[in-house]
Design goal:
Layout lengths: L4 H14 L9 H8 L5 E3 L1 H9 L8 E6 L4 H10 L3 E5 L3 H13 L6 E7 L6 H14 L4 E5 L7 H4 L22 H7 L12 E4 L10 H13 L3 E6 L5 H9 L2 E7 L2 H15 L5 E6 L8 H8 L3 E5 L5 H6 L10 H20 L1
Helix pairs in contact: 1-5, 3-4, 6-14, 9-10, 11-12
Length: 352
């Protein structure tokens, strides 16, 4: 309920940026119909005075917005209607966009963030990352798959989604701050998973060498977490600044290592780098094991606990070349993906 036309224009612009649909009331009788149920109420000084005189009950999540320095009378009206915040525009625009984004998305259980890293080139980290995201969708969740490796060729290729329309890095114009998850999912390629459409958002790097900026990665990952998504980030072995931004908020890091001596040595180096970020790291060991080394021996050599061991999966490479999204429902990759998904959910619950 805002009567100042310039302030109203500013609020409508910010609501559009937040992906928030606003219901406007022109007077207290109209406002009363939405007063109790609206997730957020925006008032200007005149509207706050009118609502107070009309006897609208105090409630939470009321924001009183003004342009310029608020006069002393504003605070009296704010107390009368229970306003928790008195904000000045344009100074508080970023804060208000964040509040409107939260209101639009509504209360949801917190999401989880998984980072997947290969112990060496060709270890299968991108395939596992895609498999975990697809498995989450099959189990009824919504997932966001984020490619943080500009030299990896593009995660959309792993899913056979390279021809789907939608934005890729660096075309996603995010410079930080709050991003509405609904708008993000609407802008991204979303390959169908079984009968579910729109439940898997894929933010892939394009085939250039320009990867995402750290602030953009942080904004995208946090948007998914706030919306309750399973966020899976595919990271390069040597963390870039963008990868470090994802690691900083990850609940768990899955380090994919193949079962051979050289990969174990390389994985130990990568594990040491990952350990500097203070996130729990777990090993996913992928066969075959040409020398007969066991998965737990590989994990000990790498220096991190074993999360899952994965046997070779006949036909997987051929299926990926045909553009079939992993994993097949009952193969070793699917089993490893389920184990990783359960582990990151447990880690997220422990952190919260």
């Amino acid at each position: 309920m805002v009567s100042d036309p310039d302030l109203l224009d500013a609020l409508l612009r910010l609501a559009a940026a937040a992906g928030c649909e606003m219901q406007r009331a022109v007077d207290p009788p109209q406002a009363r119909a939405f007063w109790s149920d609206a997730p957020l109420v925006l008032l200007d000084a005149a509207a706050a005075a009118q609502c107070a005189r009309a006897g609208l009950p105090r409630r939470g999540d009321v924001v009183l917005a003004v342009r310029g320095e608020p006069p002393a009378s504003v605070w009296r009206h704010a107390v009368a209607v229970g306003a928790e915040h008195v904000i000045t525009l344009p100074e508080a625009e970023q804060w208000l966009v964040a509040a409107l984004t939260d209101a639009a998305e509504g209360p949801r259980p917190g999401g989880t963030v998984l980072a997947v890293v290969g112990g060496r080139g060709g270890a299968g980290a991108s395939v596992l990352a895609a498999a975990v995201a697809v498995t989450a969708v099959r189990e009824g969740a919504r997932a966001l798959l984020v490619d943080c490796d500009p030299l990896g060729g593009g995660l959309d290729l792993v899913l056979g989604a390279e021809d789907l329309g939608g934005l890729r890095w660096p075309g996603v114009g995010v410079e930080g701050g709050r991003v509405p998850a609904s708008a993000l999912h609407a802008a991204l390629p979303s390959p169908r998973v079984g009968r579910r459409e729109g439940a898997l958002g894929v933010l892939s790097c394009d085939r250039s060498t320009h990867g995402p900026a750290p602030a953009a990665v942080r904004a995208v990952v946090e948007a998914g977490r706030r919306a309750g998504d399973i966020v899976v980030c595919d990271l390069p072995r040597h963390p870039t600044e963008a990868a470090a931004a994802a690691l900083a908020v990850a609940d768990l890091v899955a380090l994919v290592v193949t079962a051979d001596v050289r990969s174990s040595a390389a994985g130990a180096r990568v594990a040491a780098l990952l350990g500097r970020h203070g996130r729990p790291v777990r090993a996913v060991v992928r066969g075959p094991a040409p020398g007969g080394v066991e998965a737990d021996e590989v994990a000990r050599a790498v220096g991190v606990p074993l999360l899952a061991a994965m046997r070779p999966e006949p036909g997987l490479a051929r299926a990926l070349e045909r553009g079939e999204a992993p994993p097949r429902p009952h193969g070793p990759l699917a089993g490893a993906a389920r184990a990783v998904l359960a582990a990151v959910r447990a880690a997220s619950g422990a952190r919260s």
